[in-house]
Amino acid sequence: MAVAIIMAASCSKDKNITPTPPGGGEKPPVNPPVTTVSYLDLAKQTHNFVTGNFLTSSFSYRANTTTHSNNCFEWYNASQIYADAALVAAGDASALPYMNNTFKFMENFWDKADLRGGYFASVNLNGTGAAGDKYVDDNALTGMVYLEAYDITTGTDKQAYLDKAKACADWLINSDLWDTTYGGGFWWNTSKPNKPSQSNGLAMQLFARLYTITGQTDYRDWATKVNTWLRNNMFDSSTGLYIWMVDGTGAGTKHTEKFTYDNAIMIEADILYGKAINDDTYLAKAQAIGNAMNTVLWNSAWKGYIFNTDPSQTRVNPAWCGWGTQGMIRLYEQDKNAKWLTFAQNNIDALNKASRNKDTHGYYFFSGFAGNDRSPEVEGVDQAWMQRIQAMMSKYK
Fold first, then answer.
1. Pfam families, per this entry (predicted)?
2. How many CB atoms within 10 Å of residue 107?
3. At 178, is the secondary structure helix, strand, or coil?
């Protein structure tokens, strides 16, 4: 059970997840009436659902409302900070104390027995019991979360967020999870089962952003190292997208499924790396990934991003599919091409139709695009990502 909980706690996805049988929520009409949507209002509704159902007195967030209601997962909590930072950036300052208080709670995940530190994947709701593996993707994403909080805070809070983002990056560098197996790359976690694109893409984001902020050349050099490995080993030139992961013995087995989540991460990684090294060609690379996503990973009938390219996968998930919206918004912020916002907005609308309970304003873990086959789990991380992308969209739509 402990192993199952820790694995579920990581921000990496598993295409073989089998949600429990359908449950919860009314299936939406096939052709709902057209209404005017306020994405800021939607973000606030999601935030209210989270604080009413997931928030604890410790300012932690329970993992879900069903099977893991007494567990607290690191990347779920970090994602809620990310969501609250987006609300603050959209003009809702009431989210700021939630963000700062959960940041304080995050210290409970930090490994204080190891001088290198690093975040464990899970603790109890009161912050006790941190143990198990540490994940590259969790720590890299958390560093990026803190840098967004750094952008919108001042004084000692601002410095604290920057210092902890640097601590996350320094743990990556000193974790011994980069080695020469498969020609380089970060392992997913301290058990070293595989090397995924998303873990490395998030690390690349963090190193590039920290170099831009601090000017410390170690961060630039690590961003370059990760970028080179990803380009040489994980980029599929036939589709213009990044593959899932490499594992196994010898040269390694490449799993060539393409995920929305992975490629949205790589859009942002290329944008940030290009800014860090002052190379405009990386914006063109990011735009090319965006165009490939909108060809290969887009369901034109439902106007939303698919989970992955495995033809047996017909379900969608708010966090992993929702990440596509963030990628498109990041592209729009760079080139002001409205087509990216159209994809970003349509994807939110598709997820609202597929996954949102119109009465509670909560989101189900998995469902079909039509709102069919909704799994009963209501995961905290899915609420966080929907709050985040709705708040991000509210600045433009």
1. Glyco_hydro_76
2. 12
3. strand
List pLDDT tens digits, range 294-336. 999 999 999 999 999 999 989 999 999 999 999 999 999 999 9
Distance (Å, whole) CA 150 – CA 56? 24
Whole-number Å distance between alpha carbons of 281 and 67: 46
- Phi, then psi, of 142 in degrees rounded to 5: -60, -40
> What's the pLDDT tens digit per position in 369-393?
999 999 999 999 999 999 999 999 9
Helix (H) or strand (E) holding 136: helix 136-152
Token output for 334:
């760079």
Q: What is the pLDDT of residue 36?
A: 72
Tell me what pLDDT residue 131 has.
86
**Contact yes or no for 391/83 (Cβ under 8 A):** yes
Average of per-residue pLDDT across 25-34: 46
Type of residue at 260: T
pLDDT at 381: 98
Burial of 94 (0-12, 13-18, 19+ CB in 10 A): exposed
CA 344, 346, 352, 354 torsion: positive or negative?
negative
User: What are the two backbone dihedrals, phi and then psi, of residue 387, each rounded to the nearest 5 degrees?
Assistant: -60, -45
Residue 101: CB atoms within 10 A of its CB come to: 15
The reported pLDDT for the residue numbered 7 is 44
Query: Which residue's structure tokens are 């940041």?
Result: 103
Distance, C-alpha 335 to centroid of its chain: 23
Rounded to the nearest 5 degrees, what angle is found at the Cα of 154, between the Cα atoms of 150 and 160?
Answer: 55
Question: In angstroms, rounded to a whole number, what is the distance separating the alpha carbons of residues 184 and 386?
Answer: 34
Quote the longest CA-to-CA distance of the chain.
Answer: 57
287, amino acid identity: Q
At 249-293, the pLDDT tens digits run 988 999 999 999 999 999 999 999 999 999 999 999 999 999 999
The third-level CATH classification (topology) of the domain covering 36-394 is: Glycosyltransferase (1.50.10)
| Global pTM value | 0.93
